[in-house]
Design a protein that fits this description.
With 226 residues, the chain is mainly alpha-helical. The chain has nine helices and four strands; from the N terminus they run αβαβααβααβααα. It has one domain: HUPs (Rossmann fold). The strands form two sheets. Strands 1-2 form a two-stranded parallel ribbon. Helix 1 crosses helix 7 and helix 7 packs across helix 8.
Length: 226
């Protein structure tokens, strides 16, 4: 759970379906580490059984605008967000995150892993596609003691993967998620205020606009930075 709109909605859906939720966040050297504050608030808001933050430093590899001095792209055309993999792509990030989640799940005895990836209104990341999720699930059942012994079958749930951003916003409201707690910006200022220009801000804004629902977190951040 990053603290963003998608992962928070995925958590809310898991909770609504009756799962006892163990949340996992990552402090991986991201420039927008302010999102971790939102993750803590959301886990508490949705009554998670446990919330852990794993510290790993992906800055040792760099290769992304989120983990190095590469500039965060701003004002990208909408068609570019699905045809070009942007500089904000973090190499192997979701593979790394899901691997940690798999270990955590095996320790707590869970066979269900939820991840808030989306392959409709997204930035074109290869590790957000259904093919990746399906491949990881197959690997997970080959790689774990529980899988080999047949005591459980790991299922990777990606409930938002075929939703538009507007669908996600509507679903978040439907399940009672406090959207003011979420944070989506890749390049916030020193006070954590959204830039309003990066892909993540643009996709979030588009989703709320198309859903016809005001965004309390985004509106406050953008107005206070003007």
């Amino acid at each position: 759970m990053s603290g963003g709109l998608d992962s928070a909605t995925a958590l809310a859906l898991a909770s609504q379906q009756g799962f006892e939720c163990y949340c996992l966040s990552f402090d991986y050297g991201q420039r927008h580490a302010i999102e971790l504050r939102s993750a803590v608030l959301i886990a508490d808001h949705l009554n998670a059984r446990e919330h852990r933050t794993v510290k790993i430093d992906l800055r040792v590899f760099g290769g992304s605008a989120l983990t190095s001095d590469i500039e965060v792209p701003k004002h990208r055309r909408e068609d570019a967000t699905t045809s070009q993999i942007p500089a904000t792509y973090v190499p192997a990030r979701n593979t790394i995150f899901l691997s940690f989640a798999l270990a955590y799940a095996e320790v707590v005895g869970s066979s269900d892993i939820f991840i808030g990836v989306n392959a409709i209104d997204y930035s074109g990341y290869p590790d957000c596609r259904p093919e990746f999720i399906q491949a990881f699930e197959r690997m997970a059942n080959l790689a774990t003691k529980a899988g080999v012994e047949g005591t459980t079958k790991v299922v990777v749930h990606a409930p938002l993967i075929a939703m538009t951003k507007a669908d996600i916003v509507r679903k978040a409201v439907e399940v009672g998620l406090d959207l003011s707690l979420t944070h989506s910006c890749y390049d916030p200022d020193q006070q954590g205020r959204a830039c309003g220009m990066c892909d993540s801000c643009a996709l979030r804004s588009k989703g709320f606009e198309e859903a016809g629902i005001p965004d309390p977190a985004y509106r406050t951040a953008v107005h206070s930075s003007l």
